[in-house]
Design brief:
The chain is of the alpha/beta class. It has twelve helices and 21 strands. Strands 1, 2, 3, 4, 5, 6 and 16 form a seven-stranded mixed β-sheet that branches. The longest helix has 26 residues.
C-alpha cells in the first residue's frame, strides 16, 4: 500500500478550502492546507475583500440616508460626517479578527497550515514554494492521497490603454484618499454594489456598462426596477457605454468613453467579472481538464479527470457564492472520509439557491426569473406588488419596494421569488426554505403574514398581474 504524507492536501484557504480541511481533519484524516502567498489570507475573497467587508461598507453607506430620513421622525441637529480612516481601520480590525478565527478553527482541528504557493506536480505530489526568514526562496515537497483545489477566483480587467491606472474590488476598500469622484465600469452585482455603496458614502459615482441594462441574468423587471432606484438615489448610470482609454492628468483620471465623451474621476474601479485563480498551479503538468476561462472541470462529485484531484468553489466557475463552496466542500469530505455517523452522505443541489445583491435598495432572489420560468414551465402566473414602505411615509424618501412571485400554473408551485427593498436578503432567506420544500401559491395564501412588515406582502398577493 502506498504511503503518503497526508490523506488530503487542500490548496487555498478560502471558505471551501477551510471547510473541507477542517471537516476532514475532524474525521481523523491527516490534512494539510496551503494558503498561497500574496493572496487574501485565511477566509479567502469572502472574508478579506468580498462579502464581509462589502457588507460592512454597505451598512456604513446607509447611515447617511438614515440621518437625513430621521428628520421626518422628529430628530433634529447636524448630521455627522464620514471619517473614512476610521471606517477602514475598524473594517481591517474585524477582518483580522476573522482571519484569527479561521486559523484557530484549523489549528484546533489538527490541520497543518502552510503559508506558501502550492503547485501540483503529480496525481499525488505537491511542491510548496515558501520564503525563509531571510527572504530567500525555499521549496518543500509533499505527497497526498487526495488533493483538493479551492483557489477561488480573481478579478478580471480587460486590456486597454491606461489599464495600469485602474483598480479592482481587491483594492477599493483601502483607497486613499477617499474618492470624491468614482467611475465604476461593469454591470454585474459587484459593480452595482460598489456604485451604491460609494454613492451612499458621499462620492459622486458614474457607472458605465456596455450592455443594455445592468445585472444580466436576473429577472428583467428586477433589473430595470433596481437600476431606476439607483439612478434616483444619485448614481449616474450610463448604459451601452464602454471605456476607450484612461489617462492620468493634473485633475485626476481622464476616462475617454466610446463616442468621445470624457469622465473625470479620482479612481476608476473595474468590476468586469472574475476569472478562476489557476495560474501556476501546474494543472497542465498533470493533465487536469480546464474550460475556456481556465476553470477546473469536475463531475458531480467534484472530481477532476485526474482521479485523486478534486476542485470546489469559484475555481470551477459554477455558482460563485460562498455558501455553495461550503456545500460542495462537504460533498467531497463525505465522499472521501465518510459522512457524519448516522447521516447520509451530502449531495449538492443547485436548484433554488437564494442570493442577495447589496445595492441600495437590496435585491433578494430565489428560483427562476419570469423569463426562465416561462421557458421551463410554459404557462406561468405572475404576482407583483410595488409600494412605498411604511418607514418612508414619514422619512421623506421616494424609495419604493418591489416584490414578485412567479408560479408554475400547472402545479401551483412558486418557482420564483424576487424582492427589491430594505433587508431583501434577510426576508428572502426564509422563503427559500419554503420554496425548496415545494411550497405552492395556495400554501403562501394560507400563511398568516406578520403585520406591519414588507415581508407579509409575499403571502397577501391575490390578484395575478399576468399569465
Amino acid at each position: 500500500m502506498a504511503s503518503f504524507d497526508f490523506d488530503l492536501f487542500v490548496i487555498g484557504g478560502g471558505s471551501g478550502g477551510v471547510r473541507a480541511a477542517r471537516m476532514a481533519a475532524q474525521r481523523g484524516a491527516r490534512v494539510a492546507l496551503a494558503e498561497m502567498m500574496g493572496t487574501d489570507g485565511l477566509g479567502g475573497t469572502c472574508v478579506n475583500v468580498g462579502c464581509i467587508p462589502k457588507k460592512l461598507y454597505s451598512y456604513a453607506a446607509h447611515y447617511a440616508d438614515s440621518f437625513h430620513e430621521s428628520a421626518g421622525y422628529g430628530w433634529e441637529g447636524v448630521a455627522p460626517t464620514l471619517n473614512w480612516a476610521t471606517l477602514k481601520h475598524n473594517r481591517a480590525k474585524e477582518i483580522g479578527r476573522l482571519n484569527g478565527v479561521y486559523s484557530n478553527l484549523l489549528g484546533g482541528s489538527g490541520v497543518t497550515v502552510f503559508n506558501g504557493f502550492a503547485r501540483i506536480d503529480g496525481e499525488h505530489a505537491i511542491t510548496l514554494a515558501t520564503l525563509h526568514a531571510d527572504g530567500s526562496p525555499g521549496h518543500q515537497h509533499f505527497t497526498a492521497k487526495n488533493i483538493l483545489i479551492a483557489t477561488g477566483g480573481t478579478p478580471f480587467v480587460p486590456h486597454f490603454q491606461g489599464r495600469e491606472h485602474v483598480i479592482t474590488s481587491n483594492e477599493v476598500f483601502d483607497l486613499e484618499p477617499f474618492p470624491q469622484r468614482l467611475l465604476v465600469v461593469g454591470g454585474g452585482y459587484i459593480a452595482c454594489e460598489f456604485a451604491s455603496i460609494f454613492n451612499g458614502l458621499g462620492t459622486k459615482v458614474t457607472q458605465l456598462y456596455r450592455g443594455e441594462q445592468v445585472l444580466r441574468g436576473f429577472d428583467e423587471e428586477i433589473r430595470h426596477f433596481v437600476a431606476g432606484e439607483m439612478i434616483k438615489s444619485g448614481v449616474d448610470l450610463r448604459l451601452n457605454a464602454d471605456v476607450v482609454d484612461v489617462r492620468k492628468t493634473a485633475d485626476g483620471l481622464a476616462v475617454e468613453c466610446e463616442g468621445g465623451s470624457i469622465v473625470m474621476a479620482d479612481a476608476v474601479l473595474y468590476a468586469t467579472g472574475r476569472m478562476p485563480n489557476v495560474k501556476g498551479l501546474g494543472l497542465d503538468t498533470v493533465g487536469v481538464a480546464q474550460g475556456g476561462q481556465g476553470e477546473v472541470i469536475v463531475n458531480a462529485q467534484y472530481q477532476t479527470n485526474v482521479p485523486h484531484i478534486y476542485a470546489v468553489g469559484d475555481v470551477t466557475n459554477r455558482v460563485q457564492l460562498t455558501p455553495v463552496a461550503l456545500g460542495e466542500a462537504m460533498v467531497v469530505v463525505d465522499q472521501l472520509f465518510g459522512p457524519v455517523a448516522g447521516k447520509p452522505p451530502r449531495d449538492m443541489s443547485y436548484d433554488f439557491i437564494p442570493t442577495a445583491v447589496f445595492t441600495h435598495p437590496n435585491i433578494g432572489t430565489v428560483g427562476h426569473s419570469e423569463e426562465k420560468a416561462r421557458e421551463k414551465f410554459g404557462a406561468i402566473t405572475v404576482f407583483r406588488s410595488e409600494f412605498k414602505a411604511l418607514k418612508h411615509t414619514l422619512s421623506g424618501s421616494s424609495e419604493r419596494t418591489l416584490m414578485k412571485l412567479v408560479v408554475d400554473t400547472a402545479s401551483d408551485r412558486v418557482v420564483g421569488l424576487h424582492m427589491v427593498g430594505p433587508d431583501a436578503g434577510e426576508i428572502v432567506q426564509g422563503f427559500a426554505v419554503a420554496m425548496k420544500a415545494g411550497a405552492t401559491k395556495a400554501v403562501f395564501d394560507s400563511t398568516i403574514g406578520i403585520h406591519p412588515t414588507a415581508a407579509e406582502e409575499f403571502v397577501t398577493m391575490r390578484e395575478a398581474t399576468r399569465n
